[in-house]
Amino acid sequence: MQQSKILIPTKKEAPSDAEALSHKMMVRAGYIYQVSAGVWAYLPMAYRVIRKVENIIRQEMEKAGAVEMMMPALLPADLWKESGRYESYGDNLFKLKDRRDRDFIMGPTHEETFTEVIRDSIKSYKKLPLVVYQLQDKFRDEDRPRYGILRGKEFEMLDGYSFSADQAGLDQAYDLQARAYRNIFDRVGLDYKVILADSGTMGGKNSQEFSAPAAVGEDIIAYTDGDYAANLEKATSKFTGVQQTAEPEKLEKKPTPGAHSVDEAAESLGMDSSQIIKAMFYMAKMSEEETQPVLVLMRGNDEVNEAKLKDELGCEELELADEEDAVKYLGAHPGSLGPVGVGEDVKIYADNYVKVMVNMACGANDDGHHYINANIDRDFRVDQFGDFRNVKEGEIAPDGHPIKFTPGIEIGHIFKLGTHYSKKLGAQVLDSNGRLVDVIMGSYGIGVSRLLSAVAEQTADDNGLVWPDSIAPFDVHVIPVNAKKADQMEMANELTVALEKAGYDVLVDDRKERAGVKFADSDLIGIPIRITVGKKASDGIVEIKIRKTGETIEVKTEEVVNTVAILLKQLSGQDATEAK
């Protein structure tokens, strides 16, 4: 491939709104072009990377027994209304109408559609288990598209689905997919962690997330030097609370004017914030007909983990109550809420660390007032205790090691959906006893286009992108320093032919540009090996540079192919080791 014939619009400066390293470098290197906020064109170099990622995915999915197919991106809304996600998915769902005023959506994911196909196509357990997948663009109306292609409105995903008649079939498919995902991310060259995760809007209970540590990660990974890793929504630590032994004192109501936060209340009362009870008031949607008000109590220096609370409640949606509901149920505005005197219509949940506390301060359900010396059972009830808090760095994880935090980019997610969708959509088969049973499902997803951002975040340097050879757009970049010199161009072409015969993808910079421009562009676009044909071409000697390390060596032309083979093998081994 001649560089003069490929679109690579490199830039000296990054976009002014670019925050992430991957965003800056992929724009500067001429890989992506912004068409609209959150909508990107993948230029030839990025498209070649995506195709290589797709090939790796196809190979590993085939090994795992999954079969590729393709679903429409434009979906009738009826199925999503039937599953309940047409409303619950929220504002991220692109909704539209056709000319006959029928409701459609642009698919953000395809559980409902695949379930419909299986429901109408398979009637017996004898045709299961089955695993199918697709590589397709998805659409989500992100409120704040950012970080380039990392969080956009349109993006490519692998989404796969398993269907079985029994739990054993689901477990087998899930394990095979988990192994395939590890193989994919290893081959792509990513450093990643497999973590316990919350299923969110996907439904189901069991899930694992694959997350790539990166400075611009959207999620916090809680991990240890042992074998524990979870996202913050699911992370737990060993309970270390010690029962306070002070004698319960008399409950007193104190004025705390202007104190709306824990720290302000602690200052007003002259107490430590750890002895203040934080009361968070929620409205939990249990079903279409029932909404349950819930008051959650935490130590003042802890944060409510809404995912844990939602799981415990088993509710469909959980939202912070507005001021109107706070006044209606508790008689005060947020900032002055507490458990004392709360009626039975409000469920009171408390974190385990509250259970060991004595003589707490809490909101008095009277604006501008707090109680001191409030005690459980004597002054207020708790309907249920549990782990409802976010863990903190340094706490001890279940594996006995201290917890560390790192931001991470979600690159893949696998779910044991069970019968979450098949029940709602009526997907059943006859089992071996002739009884109708709900199909048991798994769902498996990889953010294909966001893998480019994740790799770039982990590998790019100040000079540009640095691609692992497994997904690099080209293996070798051949640069004749002066394209006007016949001997340099002749040697560059000979080397290109030899390398291509050996099976390598080669980009030749045949442009009539200054050497400095060529070298700067080469560093930007990040091809693993660069061969410079310069002044020593007449002596049959070229320079080989390793993009990742910056190391350079001089090699005779007849040794170039073997040298490139050795270097790429070494780089592939390094990438695999670092990924693990």
UniProtKB/TrEMBL annotation:
Its main location: cytoplasm. Residues 47-468 form the Aminoacyl-transfer RNA synthetases class-II family profile domain. It catalyses: tRNA(Pro) + L-proline + ATP = L-prolyl-tRNA(Pro) + AMP + diphosphate. Gene3D superfamilies: Anticodon-binding domain, Bira Bifunctional Protein, Domain 2, YbaK/aminoacyl-tRNA synthetase-associated domain. Its EC number is 6.1.1.15. Residues 240-261 are annotated as: Disordered. It is found in: Cytoplasm. InterPro entries: aa-tRNA-synt_IIb (IPR002314), aa-tRNA-synth_II (IPR006195), aa-tRNA-synth_II/BPL/LPL (IPR045864), Anticodon-bd (IPR004154), Anticodon-bd_dom_sf (IPR036621), Pro-tRNA-ligase_IIa (IPR002316), Pro-tRNA-synth_IIa_bac-type (IPR004500), Pro-tRNA-Synthase_IIa_type1 (IPR023717). Catalyzes the attachment of proline to tRNA(Pro) in a two-step reaction: proline is first activated by ATP to form Pro-AMP and then transferred to the acceptor end of tRNA(Pro). As ProRS can inadvertently accommodate and process non-cognate amino acids such as alanine and cysteine, to avoid such errors it has two additional distinct editing activities against alanine. One activity is designated as 'pretransfer' editing and involves the tRNA(Pro)-independent hydrolysis of activated Ala-AMP. Belongs to the class-II aminoacyl-tRNA synthetase family. ProS type 1 subfamily. Homodimer. PANTHER family: MITOCHONDRIAL RIBOSOME PROTEIN L39/PROLYL-TRNA LIGASE FAMILY MEMBER (PTHR42753), PROLINE--TRNA LIGASE (PTHR42753:SF2). HAMAP family: Pro_tRNA_synth_type1. This is Proline--tRNA ligase. The lineage of its organism: Bacteria, Bacillati, Bacillota, Bacilli, Lactobacillales. The gene is proS.
